[in-house]
Known about the structure:
The protein is of the alpha+beta class. The chain folds into 2 domains: 11-96 and 293-348, no CATH class; 105-279. Helix content is 30%, strand content 26%. The chain contains 7 helices and 14 strands. The strands form 4 sheets. It has a 5-stranded antiparallel β-sheet with strand order 12-4-3-13-14. Strand 13 and strand 14 (320-327) form a beta hairpin. The model is unreliable at 1-40 (pLDDT under 50). The site of zinc ion has 8 residues, from helix 3.
Amino acid sequence: MKAAPTLIQNTKLRTLSISKHICGKDNKTKTVTSCTSESKNGTRESYRKRAKAKFAQNRLLQALVKLESPLKKQYEDTQFCSWSLLQNGNTLTAKYCKQRWCRICNRIRTGKLISGYEKAINEMLQPQFVTLTIPNVLAEELRETMQEMLHNIRRIQDLRRKNKKELIKGIRKLECTYNVDNNNYHPHLHLIVDNIENALHLRKEWLKRYPTATTKAQDIKKAKEPIELFKYFAKLTSKSKKDTITIKGKKIIRDEWHYPKALDTIFQAITNMRIIQPMGGIRMVSDEIEEVEAVEMQAGEITEDRTLWKWTRMETEPGKYTFDWVDQCTGEMLTGFYPTEREWKYSNRIRNFET
Ligand SMILES: [Zn+2]
């Protein structure tokens, strides 16, 4: 048996057999070596987070593909997001799906938005976090309702311009959640605006346009963590009263589930819609992801000059699975990611698969 490849220092090694046909260079059985880097900030650690994201969305994507929706091709693209990584010297190149629901792409997008809007938010003297809502709507009304909501926000600003009032400076984000028990949708807007007067003005104008919405359902608070705004536009799991349990007399919803059909409805509804947009003169930050992105690996992390790492599911011990990018020639694992029991459960909580 060939010796295990030399890995970066401070790694824990684990070995097992991998069949010889994978590499094609050697007729002997190879040694698979996994590494768990102890360097927390290295490229491998960042890929470990990506492996976790890729694993977490795997089952949901399978369910979405089975729906045969108009977005089927895009869901399939996400299944292949960062599927293989080409390493050339110290550069690691990946191909992205660029879809709105992809956890891998959203991690990159969130980073871009935070660094792009940070300065504008820091310049606000009294940043306020505003939530504007309307009563829930049915699936077939969702797209039109969201378009109308965005139109109304623009109208509020246009009126200020017309009346020679100072424009509201801010960033708005469109979000939508699914109500399992009523089988309807809750589109809403989150905004960070520059001061309390503007926040109150927005709420007043919003309620004029949506008289059936209640004041109580609109929220204004000091923006303590403005970067929260840049997290995912749609929560991928939803609560249901069916999952309520009582602990010490207190009712709590234990587990949230994925509802692929509802998510597909939301994803179809937001096609070509801008999720995050600045207003009042703040410059737009692009959250476009390059289709192919190259990352420089840190010194000491490189084990081979030129390698193809492929996303692989492997049983490394009976009943123990790893999901990782594996060097097809040496069997080395890039990140050493093993899903925890909790991560398995999360990815498998999928309901309404067929209906
Ligand atoms: Zn992606």
